[in-house]
Amino acid sequence: MKKIFSKHYWADKDVEQLVGQMLITGVITASLVVLIGGIVYLTQHGQGSVPDYRIFKGEGAGYTTFSGIFKGVLKWNTTEIIQLGVLVLIATPILRVACSLFAFILERDKLYIFITLIVLCVILFSIFGGIKG
Amino acid sequence: MTILTFTLILLAGAYLAGLLGSLTGLGGGVVVIPLLTLVFHVDIRYAIGAALLASIATSSGAASAYVKEGITNIRLGMFLEIATTIGAVMGALIAVYTPTNTIAMLFGGILIFSAAMTLRKKNEVALTEGSRLSELLKLNSDYPVNGKKVAYKLRNVAGGFSLMTVAGVVSGLLGIGSGALKVLAMDTTMKIPFKVSTTTSNFMIGVTAAASAVVYLQRGYMDPGIAFPVILGVLGGAFTGSKLLTRMNPKVLRIIFCIAITFVAIEMIYNGYQHKF
Fold first, then answer.
1. How many angstroms separate the CA atoms of B74 and B148, rounded?
2. I want to staple A46 with a disulfide (CB 3.0 to 4.6 A). Which of A64, B4, B38, B201 is the partner?
3. Which helix (H) or strand (E) is B68 found in, with range?
4. B106 in A contact zone (CB under 8 Å)
């Protein structure tokens, strides 16, 4: 375990492998969740008629908030399971930034710890800043 | 039309969009917006939501391979992501006050520009003299060419950074990766070899798109019934495209597709002008 936290254990190459691995894992996980939710959605609602997408109504709280999506998933609602996959997909690049932050901390690269923190703050602001209008 | 038929047709369309985006180098999201609005008559706001998801999926999938090969300049990407994420948040803010017809016309303009950019002459020269700022920010690096490491330096960091902010605004406003603008900033302004600039641009698209995607998700632009076939179709198409690219050089295909895309762009601008969105 000690080795993982030492500077030399993490050469730039390893960081690249880690970042690459985490991106592909995120995309595969998201697609699997969307696929499972989607197939069950089709078996349940496949014969229904398509909602009128020509008119923008916007989605309700069930699809647009963390708590709404998780509540739906716990009830095994298929559309919320698809939305959970959407959340995993959006989270993948954000987690990649967090992963880079970890790597720069281990490398003790102060300048890039600072730069990565700015990027994370901008993203956190767009999630929690109440700018949905 | 039943949901099943709609989903299957959209899945096939998204597959073609992903394939086309990958072969032309335009990216997965760009082709999704005209597909949804012009073919399926979906409101452009739902289309933007779906396109952002397609951009995140294809860029993250492709980036994983490039990062592992050591072509992507992670420090440069991280530094420029300050510009693109701030731009993306601004773009998502401006979007509320922009009429959908204006967004459609802007999209058409960017589409033509992107198609032209994929046909441009590419920068293959690695600079040996960099600017002071590039030294200070540790942006100079090297990348593998035929198994050998080639060092490169870059210049005009401030110019590149400003252009990246514009790329971020466009990305947040229109819901696309705006890879063409990112490449313009790195390739033309900062003089980075194109292999590094295209892979680093692709690496940044995921984070840029995520910064505005969280806003659009909360605004209700992302519909599960559209997201499901679009994400899976575009990913499948992009995967097929990347496999095909290793076996053939799609130079002629690329020109044909870019001309086709230009006609689609003109139709978007015309429809926007006629207030059809």
1. 19
2. B4
3. helix B44-69
4. no
Number of other CB atoms surrounding residue B219 within 10 Å:
20
Enumerate the residues of chain A whose CB falls inside 8 A of the CB of residue B57: 27, 30-31, 89
Spatial CA neighbour of B173 closest among B58, B44, B38 = B44
Q: Regarding beta strands B148-152 and B141-145, do their DSSP bridges make them parallel or antiparallel, or are they unpaired?
A: antiparallel
Confirm or reject contact between A74 and chain B (CB < 8 A): no
Whether pTM exceeds 0.80? yes
Averaged pLDDT of chain A: 88
CB of B244 less than 8 A from some CB of A: no
CB half-sphere exposure, B112, CA atoms < 13 A = 13
Distance CA B225, CA B3 (A): 8
Region of B145 (left: φ > 0; alpha: ψ -120 to 50; beta: rest) is beta
Q: Which of A132, A69, A5, A11 has the alpha carbon at shortest distance from B227?
A: A69
> How many angstroms separate the CA atoms of B78 and B186, rounded?
13
* pLDDT digits 0-9 by tens, A26-84: 999 999 999 999 999 999 999 988 889 988 988 888 888 888 998 999 998 999 999 99
Residue ranges per structural domain of chain B: 3-273
Read off the pLDDT of residues B214-261 as tens digits, 9 standing for 90 and up.
999 999 999 999 999 999 999 999 889 888 877 877 788 888 888 888
| B56, B214 Cβ separation under 8 angstroms | no
How many whole angstroms separate alpha carbon B224 and alpha carbon A79? 6
Tell me phi and psi for residue A57, to 5 degrees: -110, -25
